[in-house]
Amino acid sequence: MANGERVGLRISPIAGKVLTVQTFPHRYRMASKPSKKATKASELATVPSDLREFRKTNTAIGLRLVEGRLGLLSRKLYNVLLFHAQELKEPGKNAPLARGGSKEYFWVPLAAIQRDASYDSHDTKQLKETLQELQDVRVYMEDEVQWTSERLLAGVSLVNPEGLKKRGGQVWLGFAFPPEVKHLVMDPGVYTRVTLFYQSLLRSGASLALYEQCLRYATNPSRVTLKKNWEWWFGVLTGAPIDANPGEYKYFKRDVIKPAIAEINSTTDITIELIEHKAGRRVAELQFKVKPSQQLPLPMPNGPVIDTELLGRISAFGMSADEAKNLLASTEDAKLRATVGLVERRLRQSNAPKIESPAAYFKMALKNDYAGNEEVAKHTMAKAAAAKAPAEDPIDQLRSKYLVHRAKDALRLYAELDPAEQARVFGDFKSSSDAKGLKITNFGLATPSVRTAFSMWYAKQNWGDPSTDELLRYAVGTHDDGEASDTKTRRSPSQY
Q: Is 444 inside a domain boundary?
């Protein structure tokens, strides 16, 4: 497709240069019993040497949908299918059955798809439903000489030579692209390198969509995305159809943009910043400033895409499993959890009128943002209390900022350790008083509260309490360079 073509509404002129792609080939084989090791989410790529890159045509980044919806799992799954199709290079390889149509499909072990999509669940039904959703997504592409309307996937198939309902054998996933989509997948022309490693760290569909959009411009000299009206960004980030009502900008910014920026900046290889353009007093257009991140992501296991615990809490209100899954896929995580907590607290209030339909009340609370209004009230009370309290000492403010900066540096230092040393250090942390009260799960540092407490603890173990001179040097460095540099020589982790 040529520059200036349109997908949905319009495809913007493509920026950035074509880069060489390094791939990491798989070796597939038929097996009588799938390896348990291959299906564990903890075996996913977790270090930069196994980024698992693929080429994603810029035409497919920032798709505007005519029909259907893209959530986190569907976005991740589609990227995984693109990766494996490019690895295989042509359809028909590894076909588990010698049937006519199988030669038109790309074939990959289902366990490999689940692993690469961070799908840490045995719910094959949900996976099949998501693949069917990808078949329901319709986009159109248009330039000066051609108009095309196609689905993202032409067909999907699950095959087990031993029988789908038998426990033995290996399950294979077959998938096929429509003709024009297949051409863009296998010969993407101008493209952006995307890695399964970084997408596995993101926990919302909006974060993944914004990450891919900004990644296009990370190597562009301007390092600034194109300027688009905010409604365009709403469609791109939420995966909603073109004709969906975007609501008010302030809620889109609060519930979608700000959480996505925070997640991208804390976990990926780029740092982004929102730029708002106003028409009078109203925000009319948005763009994002992009730069490579100086903070290396930590090796960490990948959490499940479908939060079964949250799914169970929503289902307890009387909602069907399908409704609950749709909400998980289409609602910003923080807003959803806050609303679930609010409704649960309301249901426990014995002195309040009984709620006859918790499911209906939950939907109304989500639609009208009851949890957000509750936060506004809390914020107002906090501001009133702060107005009565004496202002924080400037040195204390500087110390707080420095400790946060130093904690990030401690995380980078931790990431450089070998796995055995990392395990030892993390074990010492779990035994320390700083870890008391924390719920440390198998996901370890993937949990924000654990990551924050650990980074503060590890920084203090290495560099002790900051002196006044250090704080002043940090303040001067921040003012002069925009970023503070290390102010104290690192000690070896074995010295603390």
A: yes
